[in-house]
Each structure stands twice: as C-alpha cells, then as structure tokens.
Amino acid sequence: MQFLLRGTRGASLAMLMLFGVTTGLIAGDAPDHFLRDYAETRGWSLGRPVKAQPTPDGQAVLFLCAQPRTPRLGLFEFAVTTGQTRELVTPDQLLGGGEEQLSPAEKARRERMRVTVSGFTDFQISKDGTRLLLSLGGKLFLYDRTAGAAIELKTGDGTLVDPKFSPDGRFVGYVFDQDVRVYDLAKRRERAVTAGGTEVVTHGLAEFVAQEEMDRFSGWWWSPDAKFIAYEEADASGVEQWFVADPSKPGQPAHGQYYPRPGKANVKARLGVVSARGGKTRWVSWDVARYPYLARVDWAEHGGLTLTVQTRDQRELAVLCANPKTGATQVLLTERDPAWVNLDQQVPRWLEDGSGFLWTSEHAGAWQLELRSADGQLLRVLVPPGEGYQSLVSVDEAAKQVYYRASQDPRQSHLYRVPLAGGDMISLTAGRLSQHGATFAKNHAIYAETIASLDEPTKTVVRRADGSLIAELPSVAEAPPFIPHVEMPTVGDGPGFHAKLIRPRAFAAGQKYPVLVHVYGGPHALMVTAALSGQLLDQWIADQGFIVVSVDGRGTPGRGRDWERAIYQKFGEVPLADQVAGVRALGRQFPEMDLGRVGMFGWSFGGYMAAQSVLRRPDVFKAAVAVASVTDWYDYDTHYTERYLGVPADAHDEVYRRNSLIEDAPNLRVPLLLVHGTADDNVFFRHTLKLADALFRAGKPFDILPLVGFTHLVPDAEATERLWQRAVGFFKANLH
After folding, report:
1. Segment (H or E) for 433
2. How far is CA 22 from CA 494, 545, 722, in A?
3. Is there a contact between 483 and 532 (Cβ–Cβ < 8 Å)?
4. From 118, 407, 604, 613, active-site residue
5. pLDDT, tens digit, for every residue of 42-85?
6. Would you give the distance in Å from CA 576 to the centre of its chain?
7. Is a pLDDT exceeding 50 seen at residue 358?
8. What whole-number distance in Å separates Cα of residue 298 and Cα of residue 332?
9. What's the mean per-residue pLDDT of the chain?
C-alpha cells in the first residue's frame, strides 16, 4: 500500500453521478477556479524539472519536463559549460504525431509505480553517456546524443516492459510478453533469452506484491560483463485470481490479476541464471520454505550476485551471496525483529573494489548506516542511530566519501557526507525547515539537488562537487495562486506528535472554526512535511471555513524502531488513539479550533482511518470522507497486511476482526461519505461495497460516491475538481 497517490485512468463527469450522487458546487458558492487549476497543473508541479540525472562525465544534466497543463514529458539537456538548456526530443517526434498506446501490463506497472503522466516517464543513460534509452507507448528508441537523432529498435508485436542497457552498452534487454529478450545494437537483431513464459508463470517480471509493497519493479538483472542474465520466475498457479470489471461497460471482459490475500498462497518465486544468448537456466538454491519472498537482487562487478530474501512473517531477512555457476548460496547476514524487518532497496550497496558493502539496520533502535566486509561482518557504523539516517544518495569511490540524507526531525531531510573510513558527518544543506535530495554524476564532479520548502515550489539546482551553485534548471510551471500559511507545532505528552495547522486566509480572531483532520496515519508515510506541494489543497479547503490539521502519530517513520512498531497488530487502536490525542492537544493550544465540530478525510490507509474515526469515535469525529479505504484486512494483499497484523496461521482471527471495520457498521451515528474507484486493483472496490452492505443491513444512513472506471488513483482534472467540491460540500453541510 503506497501513500503517494497519482493516477492513470479517467472517467466522464456523467459516470460520477451513479446512484444519484451529485458532484456539483453547493448552492450559493461563488465560482472558484482553484480546484480546476490545481487539477490541470497537478498541484502546480507540471512544468518543473523531474528525474534530473547528470551525465557520467558531469558535462550535462538530463531531465524530463512537461508543459504547465499538459501531463506529457519531454526530454531536456542542460549544458554545464554554457548554461544553456535545449529540448533533445519530444514524444511527438518519435511517434510521428500518433497517440501513445499502452498495454494492460504497462498500465498495471505504471499504476504500481504511481506514474500518471505520459510521454517519457523515464530514461536511461549508457555507461559512456553517449546514448539514451527511451520507452514510449510500448516502443523502444535509442537516442544518440552526438548525432542528435533517435532510431526505433524494431521488436516483435507484443508487450515490452523494463528495458535496460547492458553494462557494456552493446545490448538492450527487456521483458517481451512473459520472457526476457536481448537486442544487439550493432546487428539490429533481437534474440530470445528465456522461453516458455506464460501469464501464469512469468520470466523476468516482478510479481504484484514485489511492485506494490517491496518497491521492487524489475524481475531481471544483467551480469557485470553482460554475458549472463539473472531472472525471476514467478509461478502464480496457486494464487487466487481476482477480476476487475467496469460496470459501465458490461460488454467489456473483466481484467484478471493474481492477488494474494492474507493466509492464502503467494506467488512462488525462484531465481535463475542464463546466458545472455539463451540456453539452459541454472537455478539459484536457497531455503525457499523458510524465505519465500525474493525481495531484492543485485549483481555487482566485484560483489557478485546477491539476493535479499524474507520469511513469510517478515520477522527475518537474509542477504545471500550466490555462485552463478553452481547456484549455491551462502548467508552474508541476517536481520531479525519480533514485529517486522523493514526493507531498504538501496542496500546492500557493494564497493567497486569488492572489499565490502554498505548496509542499513534498525537493530540498535533506529536506522544506522554500516560498512560491512565482503563476508558480511560489521566493520564500522558510519551513521549511528539517533542521527536520523533516511536514505543513501551516492558513494564517491575515488574520494572515499558516502553521501546520504538524514534529519533528526522527520519533517525535513538534509544532505550529508561521511568518510568510508569513518569520522565526522558533514552537513551540506543545514538551515531552514526544508527537504533535499540529490543525484550525482558518476565522477562526482557535479550533482543535481532538489529543494522543497514551505515557502516556495520545489526547484532543482546544479552544483559543483564543492557545493557551489552552477545554475537552477529552468521551469515553465505556473506559480501557485498563494503560499499557504502552515504552522507545525509538536503537541501532546512525552515525545509528542508532529502536527500541522492551516487556518483560513480570511481568519477572524476570536471566532471558532470547525476542524478537518487530513489523515494518512499508516506506516511508511508522513503528513507533516516541509514541502509546499502538500499544503496547497489543504489551504484551499481551510479557506472554505475550516481549520485543517494533520497529526503524525505512532507507526509513522523517522522516530525510531519502537515508535514505528507500536502499531503491530493494532491498526484499529493505536493510530486512531493518537489522532484523538493529537487533535485534543492542538485544541488546547489553539482555542479557535471547535472540538465539537471535527471531521476527518483521507485516502487509502487514510480512508480506513477516516471511516474508522466515525465508526469507533463518534464522540470526537462528527463526519468523515473515506476514499479508497480498506475495510476488511482479509481482503488486502499478503506482504503488506501480514507484516503488520501477522500471518493468519499464527495470528488469531481476533486480530484481523478487531482491525477491520465491517462489524463496526451498527455503530455509525454520524455522517459518512464513502468514495472508491470501481476499477481499483490495489484496494479493490469490494472493500467499500462490503462496508456499504453492512451499513445498509444495519439500517444506517450513509453516502457513497463510486468513481466509475478509476483505479486507486484519480488523475483526471474534471473528476479531481468535482471530487474535492463534493467532499468540502459534504463537510459544509454537516459541520458548519
């Protein structure tokens, strides 16, 4: 269950009126263009550089960018020496003005990656930096930076996903339908590497839970010498198949997918090694019965082939080193936790000389960055617990420096470096409340830094190795109509909760305002962050006559192992208790909050929290809008649910019952609006239907807004505008 909610499919306004649910403005409201502008500009983000990547020689920075109201990305190049920016190629040039056609497999892949834009959604740079690999509408293109021209790599008719340059740049590999293929760039010829893949048994594709929950989107990997390929075989023959149908198109066949639910069969994964020219597969051997999850695979030049595997209950994780010639494996390290072990897809990160690798661990009570020897032994802790380590950025092997992101305050993130030999941690971005990220050139001569803060939109700048500014990458984005006024107090007892509060811009001192809690409340996500992008919609909602607040309670990241794992088997207890405590603490500090008129709204896990708030604490929350919410945890996927609630064979059924919402339906006595995409293949529409049926049978009034044809995401501008109008109108009618 991912938090960032971007989308891939649209629906007409007429579809949003099913079951007599209207979506227009509340009578008497003045026209307001904010929502349409917000939707069409994607929160004023379109037109800003994204995915900035320096070339290996540090002479240029490549990035993607769209027009301000057209979610279609083109490819641009910033030249470091001249400071000039030019557009290299557009999607229209490659498609000849034709429409981009996506296969169902590519649509599903983009859904898992939360990609909603079209055009070039990604690009790859060859090792020497002279060529670029671009995928567009199922077609594959090679762009020559020297010649300034692109050619299409002619492949067969079928579904092509996950293309990658070989390490030597001579070949391109990809998954075609359900098998791995390689394209020889010199001979302009394609050849099969694996054979026999089907929709049930795939070769080279990451299964659903790997993409949705493990953050692993690839299922195949080049060897460093480009002579071999490691690939995942995912056998879904024992997995339940669920079908998503569009009720507005009864003549259209339903789309099926393999969806593993708690306590039921998962995909059976194994890892094979095969010659890049095809042939017999050598299967890697490990204790699959103990470690059924294949979480990560890496094939480093000197570190060898390593894989990260997990137990079904995710309380144990092991890193294995595999011999590609024999398939034998040996354990390099093991991590254990009585609740669960978090995955970090950035490690192990092998050093180029093969002497060891970087690793991250929470075994000391908070994240720490470690250097380990080639056999897995701990050499030294580079970033100790308590320093707020967040993620690995880059390793400068020549200078023997490690760059990373960290902050003891999870609302922000800053760039640091530390010597591989150990020593002082040097801050590169200390200062105001803000968030920073970076991508470095291979030679570390330059880096592209993204900067987000509360008082200006996100920007990307290019810096030299010493941190001096070269330039800001150009943006053509429209400026937002206002800068929200956000307060971020820490409230409550003990360590307290990080919270945010936004008043109406026309705030009147001495007046009491109804309160809306914008919630997520689940693991691995924060609502209270130092970024303007997360505040614009909340400011507009506040301007409709509310005070909008958010509270990051226990279970959220960045505050240590115990804080995060306090929610283990307690989704229906701890997160809601912390929202109640946080709102009441805010009310004591800000008396303009009317705690007799509090509502909650949220999406995904936030939708679960919103529905839960009115079912279990109607004494505090007087109305809720729950979007795409889980209502029965037996109907969500294995890897996410079993991590937090336990495997049903081990966890008593009572754990799942008390964390689900169906049996709470008779308790509803305040207004509830349920919203859900009918084509959702992550949190299926089934969830909202089950709660709606339980409410109906209990004789409880409620509202429902089905978003016909939408998945878990709603990128359509008109639908976005109407959805938020409807939500705010609902709260106006029930809290004002």
Report:
1. none
2. 45, 22, 9
3. yes
4. 604
5. 999 999 999 999 999 999 999 999 999 999 999 999 999 999 99
6. 23
7. yes
8. 14
9. 93
- Asked if residues 333 and 372 have their Cβ atoms less than 8 Å apart, the reply is yes
pLDDT score recorded for residue 167 = 96
- Distance between CA 455 and CA 291 in Å, rounded? 47
CA triple 206-558-472, angle to 5 deg: 80
* Run of H or E including 645: helix 638-645
pLDDT at 162 over 50: yes
* 680, 681, 687, 716: the active-site residue: 680
pLDDT of residue 1: 64
What is the rounded CA–CA span in Å between residue 159 and residue 231?
Answer: 18
Identify the three-state secondary structure at position 534. helix
Give the tens place of pLDDT for each residue, 376-421: 999 999 999 999 999 999 999 999 999 999 999 999 999 999 999 9
Closest CA to 307 of 390, 220, 420, 235: 220
* Of the candidates 165, 156, 221, the residue with the CA atom closest to the CA atom of residue 191: 156
Helices (H), 2-117: 34-40, 91-95, 104-113
Torsion, CA 382, CA 387, CA 392, CA 395, rounded to 10: -40
Sign of CA dihedral 565, 566, 568, 573: negative
Q: What is the mean pLDDT of residues 431-449?
A: 95
Cα–Cα distance, 78 to 93 (Å, whole number):
20
604 catalytic? Reply is yes
Q: Is the dihedral of CA 147, 151, 153, 154 positive or negative?
A: negative
Q: Residue 92 phi/psi, 5° resolution?
A: -65, -35
Interatomic CA distance for residues 213 and 191, integer angstroms: 32
CA dist 288 and 285 (Å) reads 8
**680 included as an active-site residue:** yes
Please report the pLDDT score of residue 589 as a whole number: 97
Q: Are 411 and 529 in contact (CB under 8 A)?
A: yes
Question: Domains in the chain, start-ordered, CATH in brackets?
Answer: 13-41+479-735 (3.40.50.1820)
Give the number of other CB atoms < 10 A from CB of residue 617. 17
Name the phi and psi angles at 377, rounded to 5. -75, 140
Complete edge-to-edge strand list for the sheet that includes strand 356-361: 349-350, 356-361, 368-373, 378-383
Alpha-carbon distance values, 202 to 135, 178, 241, 260 (Å):
21, 5, 15, 16
Query: What are phi and psi for residue 437, nearest 5 degrees?
Result: -145, 165
**SS3 state at 586:** helix
Helix (H) or strand (E) holding 131: strand 131-136
Chain centre to alpha carbon of residue 550: 20
pLDDT in tens, 540-561: 999 999 999 999 999 999 999 9
Contact 616, 576 (CB under 8 A): yes
Catalytic residue, chosen from 215, 361, 712, 716, is 712
- What is the Cα–Cα distance from 705 to 692, expressed in whole angstroms? 11
Using CA atoms, how far residue 114 sits from 4, 265, 665, in Å, is 7, 26, 32
The amino acid that residue 127 corresponds to is: K
Angle formed by the axes of helices 605-616 and 574-589, to 10°? Answer: 80
Residue 10 has pLDDT above 70, yes or no: no
Q: How far apart are CA 281 and CA 194, in angstroms?
A: 8
Residue with tokens 């057209």: 70
